[in-house]
């Protein structure tokens, strides 16, 4: 298909310079040839459905119409998936990821009202429900015959889950729970799909039984009638209004007026209530937080894909766009020739790879540790929690910033909706808020780091992700070397130094305050330490992966990975100089050299930059951008998109006769 396209000649000229086989890179990026093949098959199979070929640009629709169009598209896709499965094509986890983050993000530019159904409601049933409960609800949920969402946050509390107000009180006489929202602040608020889409919820509420409080527990509640879709008795439900993005996610509010549900509707894989009201405690209260952990892991993977879209747009546009002669005797260059443009885009390309590699490692860790937890071994759960929290934060923050930079790198045209940046940005910044507020999650990782430092002080052995703290304590880190490996050790020294300082100040504060107050007072340093620890993880994972690539891939691709690693490491070092200067000794010559090395790495990568974004393998139908299409036909696309504006469907708008003309006349 691509071969038949007429390609912009500047873009072709740059593609001709690429030194590696793009297909080899794409296979690596998607986890292997099978996965790449399946991804392409699914994208093509779903997006070619005639009912998705509508010429309607949803950004011109009203809020209500956008939702209705999103639901229409949901059903088209669900039918398509049903057909595929009926033909014997198994939808596995790989496909779910593809569906979740690529196709869905383009078909539903502002998010899908069913993402939390698949990603959270289904997951809650699978991980919190007993086998009997799964038999009753899970299969129907997976086949989308019931729709649900994950209802935790309230108007008054999102972060502090233990502070939620909705109550679930067991009535042993009727063997029912009574779910109630006692105050305005106890209204459930935010869940995706809640407002007008779902008919079930997994709701988190404070459990009371036989007059005793047993903390936050999950319950399944039907909120709308199967036939009429009207709210069930005692259910007050609606939508929370327009947002910065995510406008088709149908986020809702929900209150319960003493709603009765049967005993079997408490999800009892972990804790249980017996018929007589007796409460059986789970192995750990945090087992009920498992769905949040899983989604944090998914978010990291999603961030690599969002940024891949943004850099594909910025890179292709920068190859097609010509502006401002560099040498006055020569024609205007492609804007990618300006080194400042390379400085904006190439580190963002490197970040896609670093985040993808970290997400893969996190998925592996998630799978290993979840299997251990299922067999009753919770010992490594804190490792997973600490890593998933800080990675969720740092990747959402970094990607939000990089998407902005890519948008700005496209000049004025980047500000058009048709460029695609607006929707990518809306989806990314939403993730800075949801699934745990970013500062709060950094502080969770910090708890782990402080414990690790205390173990170092006691001479204990640490888990691999924090082993560098022992190396710092024994004076092995802190000498500057300008290689990626040297940057990693410098960053490790800065992180360990920051943790040691936070620990010291925490201990000092503990002399006059409680642990909790002292921890809160030390929050700024703790959050900084977590952020740095995450950067250490990202860089060390990338180094590990690039070294591995040298063994498994062609020499040409191995070199590209090396170039990417260098750009990533130099950029990271330059951005974190302040933190490193406190704990590592540099000369001004070292810093001058770092800047020169960074600039040289941009130059070295330049010829392969277009090849890498092509290797992200994002078809135009998924990218949805006038600036970033494969053929580089930017100006025709901009014009054609503008012509579709509803305002352009008539020569004169009625506001002229209604307002402007009378005004001009009245002032004569
Ligand atoms: C056609 C369609 C096809 C469709 C196909 C579709 C395919 C779809 C594919 C799927 C794609 C999906 C993509 C995503 C999209 C998502 C969309 C948006 C979703 C947004 C959802 C949300 O937004 S949903 C609400 C999230 N709301 C939070 O996120 C609250 C944060 N708030 C807390 O999470 C707790 O409140 C907080 C602070 C920890 C304190 O909890 P607390 O007070 O109980 O505990 P403490 O702080 O006292 O901690 C006590 C000890 O527990 C430890 N610990 C705490 N948590 C732990 C944990 N999780 N695991 C282990 N350990 C944990 C801690 O480390 C301490 O350990 P230690 O004592 O040893 O230090
Ligand atoms: C787009 C979107 C989709 C969502 N989807 C869902 C969903 O499907 N289901 C669901 O249940 N929820 C959902 N949520 C809710 C979301 O999970 C919460 O908004 C999020 O966890 C943050 O909690 P909060 O709003 O209470 O923030 P707050 O905690 O009120 O944060 C406000 C400020 O207070 C600070 N702060 C709070 N506590 C601390 C602390 N301990 N230490 C230091 N600073 C602190 C924060 O850092 C922040 O700066 C969604 C939210 C959004 C935006």
Q: Supply the CATH class of the largest domain.
A: Mainly Alpha
Q: Tally the helices.
A: 22
Low-pLDDT runs: none
Cα-atom Rg, whole angstroms? 27 Å
**Which percent bin holds the helix content?**
55-70%
- According to CATH, the homologous superfamily of the largest domain is Butyryl-CoA Dehydrogenase, subunit A, domain 3
Domain Acyl-CoA oxidase C-alpha1: 289-450
Organism: Pseudolycoriella hygida
Keywords: FAD, Fatty acid metabolism, Flavoprotein, Lipid metabolism, Oxidoreductase, Peroxisome
Main location: other
What's the helix and strand layout?
Elements lengths: L8 H9 L4 H8 L3 H15 L15 H24 L6 H15 L7 H14 L2 H12 L5 E4 L15 E5 L4 E5 L7 E2 L10 E10 L2 E11 L12 E5 L12 E5 L2 E4 L9 E2 L5 E2 L9 H31 L18 H36 L6 H29 L11 H13 L4 H20 L10 H6 L10 H27 L4 H7 L1 H30 L2 H21 L1 H5 L6 H28 L4 H4 L10 H10 L10 H13 L2
Parallel strand pairs: 1-5, 2-5
Antiparallel strand pairs: 2-3, 3-9, 4-8, 5-6, 7-8, 10-11
This protein binds ligand FFI and flavin-adenine dinucleotide (FAD).
Structural summary, described in words:
56% of the residues lie in helices and 8% in strands. With 668 residues, it is of the alpha+beta class. It has 3 domains: 22-112, no CATH class; 147-282, Butyryl-CoA Dehydrogenase, subunit A, domain 2; 291-465 and 481-615, Butyryl-CoA Dehydrogenase, subunit A, domain 3 (Up-down Bundle), CATH 1.20.140. Strands 1, 2, 3, 5, 6 and 9 form a 6-stranded mixed β-sheet that branches. It has a 3-stranded antiparallel β-sheet with strand order 4-8-7, with no helix packed on it. Strands 10-11 form a two-stranded antiparallel sheet. Helix 1 crosses helix 19 (588-615). The chain is globular and about 90 Å long. The mean pLDDT is 95. Residues 116, 149-153, 157-159, 190-192, 246, 251, 430, 433-437, 439-440, 443, 523 line the site of flavin-adenine dinucleotide.
